[in-house]
């Protein structure tokens, strides 16, 4: 077995063989790991420990900082090393790739090492003497789920990957060690089968919640399968002519050259199965219960909390998978602007996690359609100034001037973004008559300060729990497990898959309308018919596609989905070649502040859709081939 580990490490250039967190007498042996239940459980948790840090504000999950949703000021590198952000800056490379999940370097989890440890667990769990067969089957199913997820994550990053179905034996030949990348369709089939196998013996719900929340369940397995098959059916992987030349050295083609609509049908079936199972397990879209508040709140505030709390309320019924090993603590502190005037409070929060102006423009108007389509929205003059009145107080500070862009927007705009003059509900104030408002111009409370300001003038409010409170003693944070998969995500995946599979129009829009209703918007058809310059848009497949894509980008903004969606849709070449912009945060007056400033001219080419393999890895295993363009 030890020879197996050595061979595998040579192939993938993994870290040292530290496959147990804690081992008796510091002796790393398989015999110790599976001699009793307690030790096997520690090995089980070691398999979980490789999960990417989904809530890492700088490192861990490239989707939070490697795209175009979030930006930082240029000299942040003197304070931290936001590795994923370097991907957004276009600095990805083949010498030492950032967030390298293949080799486990540059803040990437060593996922091939994780797969090795998962295989060791599955090979040995049945030898543990003091466990029941039911427990062994459940733990094996959990590790199969993890094994499938790690393969899925690698596939999403790199495209075709080697499939680590079992570890190499001690009799492996040099040719056996030089494993090759497998075609995308083969990878997808294997991962889907593994998830189905895992689901058979996973619980539908966690019974012992205090001890076991976050461990794999049947709804989690089926939800990941739905994500997998939607990804496989999407343009990046389904008949992509750009990658037709990616072949193994023997000429084996790794990407399918022909589009196959059957993949969308399979994806829709997987989404439906995942949703039905989630419903059966008690999952539902989150709605805030006003009786939980000690203060009377308006319908506006209730809708805001419907949206914010669907992400930030611990273990709410919408969360299909929350990752307790990736808690939203630092990311909340860095998404929170300063709202208190005294110095003691100012040091408690950070506020450097800046949402980009393009994200502010993405949200719909109050009429539920894009602002550039709305017949009633003053899109041409959106950058001009307007004075807020008392009627605006639950959104914008009365008596203050701000951009027209900030008026007459949908509830998700105000629930998801903080901005100059905008209301920040919470922070110890829960009465609608006593509100905090952000003041972000240069000489104001949330304005420029060393390392603690938004470079764009926006903050991702939806990531901050409204019960957090800054004080002279620090920042009291309501931590929550990062919501890896919400039910809303599944609804929108299903709508997308049904549309691409030529489903029935009303069935498709039903799932979108469920999300919109929770967000305080009218159904799609009603909104487009009454307010859009393109009233027939929901009646065509292409029109619905655009509507569904936009709904995903809005509903799941700042949650690590946009990064992957733009890639699988092959839209990244359009969106990630646009300038990153924000307000002129050095401005003192409203006239000076509300001028657009370009922060970065972002670039993205076809090669950037997939991660590069490190040069050293290709030298160690010459059977591997590099990705397109690298």
TrEMBL record:
Ranges for domain RagB/SusD: 317-630
Keywords, alphabetical: Cell outer membrane, Membrane, Signal
InterPro entries listed in its UniProt record: SusD-like_N (IPR033985), SusD_RagB_dom (IPR012944), TPR-like_helical_dom_sf (IPR011990)
The UniProt record lists the keyword Signal: yes
Main location: membrane
Signal peptide: 1-18
Subcellular location: Cell outer membrane
Name listed for the protein in its UniProt record: RagB/SusD family nutrient uptake outer membrane protein
Organism: Sphingobacterium chuzhouense
């Amino acid at each position: 077995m030890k020879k197996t580990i050595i061979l595998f490490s040579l192939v993938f250039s993994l870290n040292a063989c530290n496959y147990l967190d804690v081992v008796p007498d510091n002796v790393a042996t398989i015999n110790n790991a599976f001699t009793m239940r307690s030790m096997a459980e520690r090995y089980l948790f070691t398999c979980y420990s490789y999960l990417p840090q989904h809530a890492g504000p700088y490192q861990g999950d490239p989707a939070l900082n490697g795209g175009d949703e979030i930006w930082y000021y240029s000299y942040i590198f003197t304070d931290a090393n936001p590795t994923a952000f370097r991907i957004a800056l276009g600095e990805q490379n083949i010498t030492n790739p950032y967030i390298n999940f293949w080799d486990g370097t540059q803040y990437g989890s060593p996922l091939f090492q994780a797969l090795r440890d998962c295989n060791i667990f599955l090979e040995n769990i049945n030898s543990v003497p003091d466990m029941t067969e039911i427990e062994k089957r459940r733990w094996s199913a959990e590790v199969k789920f993890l094994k499938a997820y790690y393969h899925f994550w690698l596939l999403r990053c790199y495209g075709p990957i080697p499939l680590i179905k079992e570890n190499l034996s001690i009799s492996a030949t040099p040719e056996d060690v030089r494993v090759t990348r497998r075609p995308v369709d083969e990878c997808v089939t294997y991962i889907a089968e593994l998830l189905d196998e895992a689901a058979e013996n996973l619980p539908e719900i966690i019974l012992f919640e205090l001890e076991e929340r976050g461990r794999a369940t049947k709804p989690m397995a089926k939800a990941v399968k739905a994500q997998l098959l939607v990804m496989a059916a999407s343009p990046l992987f389904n008949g992509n002519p750009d990658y037709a030349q990616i072949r193994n050295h023997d000429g084996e083609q790794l990407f399918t050259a022909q589009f196959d609509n059957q993949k969308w049908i399979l994806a829709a079936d997987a989404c439906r199965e995942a949703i039905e199972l989630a419903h059966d397990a008690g999952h539902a879209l989150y709605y805030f219960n006003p009786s939980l508040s000690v203060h009377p709140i308006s319908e506006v505030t209730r809708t805001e909390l419907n949206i914010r709390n669907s992400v930030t309320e611990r273990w709410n019924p919408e969360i299909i998978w929350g990752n307790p090993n990736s808690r939203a603590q630092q990311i909340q502190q860095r998404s929170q602007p300063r709202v208190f005037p005294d110095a003691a409070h100012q040091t408690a929060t950070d506020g450097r996690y800046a949402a980009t102006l393009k994200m502010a423009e993405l949200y719909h108007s109050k009429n539920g359609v894009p602002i550039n389509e709305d017949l009633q929205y003053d899109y041409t003059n959106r950058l001009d100034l307007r004075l807020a009145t008392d009627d605006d107080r639950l959104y914008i500070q009365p008596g203050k001037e701000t951009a027209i862009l900030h008026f007459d927007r949908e509830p998700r705009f105000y629930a998801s973004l903080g901005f100059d003059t905008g209301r920040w509900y919470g922070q110890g104030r829960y009465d609608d008559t006593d509100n905090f408002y952000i003041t972000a111009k240069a000489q104001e409370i949330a304005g420029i300060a060393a390392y603690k300001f938004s470079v764009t003038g926006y903050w991702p409010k939806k990531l901050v729990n409204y019960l957090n409170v800054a004080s002279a003693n620090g920042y009291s944070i309501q931590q929550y497990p990062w919501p890896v998969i919400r039910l809303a995500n599944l609804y929108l995946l299903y709508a997308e898959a049904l549309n691409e599979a030529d489903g029935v129009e009303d069935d498709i829009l039903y799932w979108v309308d469920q999300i919109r209703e929770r967000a305080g918007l009218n159904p799609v058809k009603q909104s487009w018919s009454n307010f859009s310059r393109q009233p027939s848009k929901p009646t065509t497949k292409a029109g619905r596609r655009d509507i569904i894509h936009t709904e995903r980008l809005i509903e799941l903004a700042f949650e690590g989905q946009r990064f992957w969606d733009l890639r699988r849709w092959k839209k990244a070449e359009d969106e990630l070649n646009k300038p990153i912009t924000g307000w002129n945060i050095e401005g003192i007056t409203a006239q000076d502040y509300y001028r657009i400033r370009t922060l970065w001219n972002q670039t993205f080419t076809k090669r950037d859709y997939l991660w590069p393999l490190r040069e050293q890895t290709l030298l160690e295993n010459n059977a591997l081939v590099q990705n397109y363009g690298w």
